[in-house]
Specification:
The protein is α/β, with parallel strands linked by helices. It is built from ten helices and eight strands. Helix 5 links the parallel strand 4 and strand 5. The longest helix has 17 residues.
Length: 213
């Protein structure tokens, strides 16, 4: 397990003098706080958008990323926009229980749901769907592979006003504060920018939002 989120949490672990241990679990367990409340993990890092509904189940760190949703398609699909998916009778995929799925459902689409972002992209790769709506940072990293870039393309960037946050069990102020400190320090000393460029792509200062909306 590696990536932008994992690297940021490594900074937290270093500050606390502990070693990060990563457990992979379906997104639903993060969204509901099930793994946190049962003590199976201490924090969740899953590119999770901060929402009022999710705040009922978990406590969020300060936001560490401004995110948009990308519309990614097979280059041979004939799709040039999200609207084309419906107009041309193509199949759309999204990750279950995510804001991306909620967004397209709100626009009248009936997407095929996949358990994870990897499963979403594999569904596109294998032709189960001809287009997917998924977090743009995930797409940026995926398209760094030239083989993927040659077969797939982004035809839309949906600005949904999303901000990512890490989560902890409700009331765990100490760990939440440690997360906030690591995020703030990384932005201040240039570490955030380096990690962003390593895992995502060209750095845009707007990705480092100072506060949740």
């Amino acid at each position: 397990m590696q990536g932008f989120d994992v690297s940021l949490v490594d900074l937290v672990a270093k500050n606390l003098g502990v070693k990060q241990q990563v457990l992979d679990t379906p997104f639903e367990n993060f969204k509901t706080g099930a793994f946190l409340n049962s003590g199976q993990c201490d924090l969740a890092a899953a590119g999770m958008t901060i929402t009022a509904e999710r705040k009922k189940n978990v406590d969020f760190s300060d936001p560490y990323f401004e995110a948009t949703q990308a519309v990614l398609v097979d280059r041979n699909s004939g799709i040039d926009s999200l609207e084309d998916v419906k107009a041309k009778g193509r199949k759309l995929g999204a990750q279950a229980q995510t804001t991306g799925e909620d967004y397209v459902k709100g626009k009248g689409y009936d997407p095929i749901s996949f358990e994870s972002s990897d499963a979403v992209l594999n569904g596109l790769r294998t032709g189960q769907v001809q287009a997917v709506v998924i977090d743009y940072p995930v797409v940026q990293g995926w398209l760094k592979d030239k083989a993927n870039a040659g077969k797939f393309k982004v035809v839309g960037n949906l600005k949904t006003g999303e901000q990512y946050g890490f989560t902890v069990k409700k009331g765990n102020a100490k760990l939440r504060e440690a997360l906030n400190k690591a995020i703030a320090d990384a932005k201040a000393d240039g570490t955030y920018k380096k990690l962003y460029e390593k895992w995502i792509g060209p750095y845009d200062a707007s990705a480092a939002s100072p506060a949740a909306s």
